[in-house]
Design brief:
CATH architecture of the largest domain: 3-Layer(aba) Sandwich
Distance between the termini: 53 Å
Helix content: 25-40%
Radius of gyration: 21 Å
Structural class: alpha/beta
CATH superfamily of the largest domain: HAD superfamily/HAD-like
CATH topology of the largest domain: Rossmann fold
Keywords: Amino-acid biosynthesis, Hydrolase, Magnesium, Metal-binding, Serine biosynthesis
Protein name: phosphoserine phosphatase
Shape: globular
CATH class of the largest domain: Alpha Beta
Pathway: Amino-acid biosynthesis; L-serine biosynthesis; L-serine from 3-phospho-D-glycerate: step 3/3
GO biological process, one term: L-serine biosynthetic process
EC number: 3.1.3.3
């Protein structure tokens, strides 16, 4: 019986230089190099060694293509979480819907959103955030909601960089997605974010089709329109939260196979990392550690968003790779107009 092997440390006898070449999403200066935005080091080597081991025919770690499944958290793993993009969408929706709800001017948590008072909004706690999300995401069909999201993304900008949110994605992770898919992996998003919010843009931005996006859901009701068309009407009620243990439960329900690689950034990804790496055979668990205040942001244990404490403590004993954005990535975001943009401007 094959025993589980973790690639949190460089696998003995393998060299990163022997990894198969692949055309990654790289900057022109590094085109042709595997994981071009990753600095040489243990993190990059652990990834390339793992992929070589599980994709080399005849290797004791070989994994058939059908079982090559990799799961990725979204917020702070694939794109920025400061600010949280879907929350920014919800706040803008509050202002857009305000003419229909003038009472919101004096009601929390809506007043805080209208006033852009993040401290007051935070004081409403999780209940307040959920109320805003439910109220602004419901009252329409799935198709109508998709149009609202697409229209917002076309004009919304990150408050610090001034770039579209769909450009505030991590170049090294885009390269990793391409690298894995080049070697026969199916890549899935498994996120606490709203599934219908992410499915609007995930394929264009990440190359991940809608059916491979798993996330939190609100309840829907089938109804027939005046024209006789069947529609799914979105209700202001939580159906499923895809976070914590919910992530591994959703993987079992929708993917129906245990992944062999998992990528996250916070304690919300802990159970997904555990579920993935405790299977038999070769496994890869990776945590993106936000420790680069100059080029992005630095936060972990004491953060209200993307808290990383338990998973960070467990990473060493579990053999998970902890990626330092500061040390392991020489580029954070994709180039823009031929210039590297790191979001620090």
């Amino acid at each position: 019986m094959t025993t589980r092997r973790s690639f949190g440390h460089v696998a003995a006898g393998l060299s990163a230089s022997s990894a198969l070449t692949v055309e990654a999403s790289a900057t022109p200066a590094h085109a042709g190099r595997v994981l071009a935005s990753w600095n040489d080091g243990a993190a990059q080597s652990a990834i390339t060694d793992f992929v070589q081991a599980v994709t080399t025919a005849g290797s004791r770690d070989f994994v058939p293509v059908a079982a090559r499944i990799a799961v990725f958290d979204n917020d702070s793993t694939l794109w920025c979480e400061v600010p949280t993009v879907q929350l920014m969408f919800a706040i803008d929706r509050v202002r857009q819907l305000l003419p229909q709800h003038p009472e919101w001017r004096t009601q929390q948590p809506f007043k805080a959103a209208i006033d852009n008072d993040m401290s007051a909004l935070a004081a409403t706690g999780q209940r307040g955030i959920v109320e805003i999300l439910m109220t602004t995401h419901a009252g329409n069909t799935s198709e109508q909601f998709a149009v609202v999201v697409a229209d917002w993304l076309a004009t919304a900008r990150h408050p610090k960089s001034g770039r579209p949110y769909t450009e505030m994605i991590y170049q090294p992770m885009l390269e990793l997605l391409d690298f894995l898919r080049h070697h026969g992996f199916r890549t899935f998003v498994v996120s606490g974010g709203g599934v219908e919010f992410m499915r609007v843009w995930a394929e264009k931005v990440y190359g991940i089709p809608p059916e491979q996006v798993i996330g939190s859901t609100i309840k829907t009701r089938h109804q027939v329109s005046a024209g006789g068309t069947g529609e799914l009407f979105r209700l202001p009620a939580v159906d499923f939260i895809d976070d914590g243990a919910g992530k591994s439960e959703a993987i079992g329900k929708f993917i129906r196979q245990r992944p062999i690689a998992a990528f996250g950034n916070s304690d919300g990804d802990l159970q997904m990392l555990q579920y993935t790496t405790r299977g038999s055979g070769s496994r890869l668990g990776l945590i993106v550690h936000h420790d680069d205040a100059k080029r992005e942001v630095a936060y972990d244990r004491n953060s209200d968003i993307g808290r990383l404490a338990k998973a960070l403590d467990m990473a060493g004993p579990a053999g998970w790779v902890v990626v330092s954005m500061k040390k392991d990535w020489h580029q954070i975001f994709p180039d823009h107009d031929g210039e590297q943009t790191d979001g620090s401007s």
